[in-house]
Amino acid sequence: MQSLPRQPFIQRLRINILRLLFVLLLPLLLFVRPVIAENGLGGTLMEEAGILLVIIAVLGRFWAVMYSGHNKNRVVVQHGPYSMCRHPLYLFSTIGVAGFGLMVGSLLLTLLITVLAGVVLAATARSEEAHMRSLFGPDYDAYAARVPMIWPNPVLFQTPHEITVRVQALRVNLQDAVVFLSFIPMAALLQWLKHADYVTTFPLY
């Protein structure tokens, strides 16, 4: 079985750094108490919105991998989500991170981790684009001139009637999907530990 093309080293390094920063942030979340009442309407809406964003992130990443998993680093993928923005995987990952912040209940924390994820993934995207330009030259330049980098433009959407899906790529993405879905019970566990008064918390908007 042919293996999937490996990511450029700097790209993998930055993504691993982002994952490490997230793991290091988890203990801090134990000591944060949202100012918005968790049992009130505001807290409930934030939690439900966060869960929705995580689900959107998981489904969106699978959608993107269905188009890119077979062709990435072989051709310039320009259909499906890639017809609206050049890095839909990073877009949906950032959405998932924002969802986790909302589930924790802190608007300030949501902004902090979303911006952090966005900055790291944007830098990773620029590194990836340098790699793609070395592979495809003018073809990728033309694609980049037409399609926005991260923020999608739905007007540009286009897709063929049929696509080829690589099962191996879906299996790899499934691992990331499990990570994103784990945000939901992880946020619930953090809230339970705080309600049980196992830790001293401080308020954070």
Summarize the structure in words:
This protein is mainly alpha-helical and 205 residues long. The protein has one domain (15-204). It has helices at 9-29, 41-68, 88-104, 107-136, 138-146, 167-181, 183-195, and strands at residues 32-34, 202-204. It has a two-stranded parallel ribbon with strand order 1-2. Helix 2 (41-68) runs antiparallel to helix 6. The longest helix is centred in the middle third of the chain and has 30 residues, at 107-136. The chain is elongated, with a radius of gyration of 19 Å. It starts with 8 loop residues before the first helix and ends with a strand. The model is unreliable at 1-6 (pLDDT under 50).
Question: TL;DR of this structure?
Answer:
Helices cover 65% and strands 3% of the residues.
Descriptors:
single chain, 205 residues, 2 strands, mainly alpha, two-stranded parallel ribbon
Describe the SSE topology.
Elements lengths: L8 H21 L2 E3 L6 H28 L19 H17 L2 H30 L1 H9 L20 H15 L1 H13 L6 E3 L1
Parallel strand pairs: 1-2
